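re: the backbone from monday

yeah here it is again, tokenized this time
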């Protein structure tokens, strides 16, 4: 989950990132995280829905360890 603040020029400035998995705040400096966005297309049960989420490294690792087919590392 991302929270934004409006600056003087009314531009969106990232102010906080919270892990959707564990709920912990992810430091904006010195930490990395996974961000995903998906807009569902026609013929899906989610037609037109837009989803977005952020995961800390630990939650990302836990999620990907559960995959039946392992992710491809490049």
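seq for it, each position gets an aa:
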């Amino acid at each position: 989950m991302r929270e934004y603040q409006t600056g003087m020029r009314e531009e969106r400035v990232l102010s906080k990132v919270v892990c959707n998995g564990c709920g912990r705040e992810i430091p904006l400096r010195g930490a990395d995280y996974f961000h995903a966005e998906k807009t569902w297309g026609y013929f899906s049960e989610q037609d037109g829905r837009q989803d977005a989420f952020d995961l800390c490294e630990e939650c990302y690792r836990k999620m990907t360890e559960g995959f039946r087919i392992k992710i491809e590392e490049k």
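The mean pLDDT is 91. Strands lie at 2-6, 12-18, 25-26, 33-39, 50-56.
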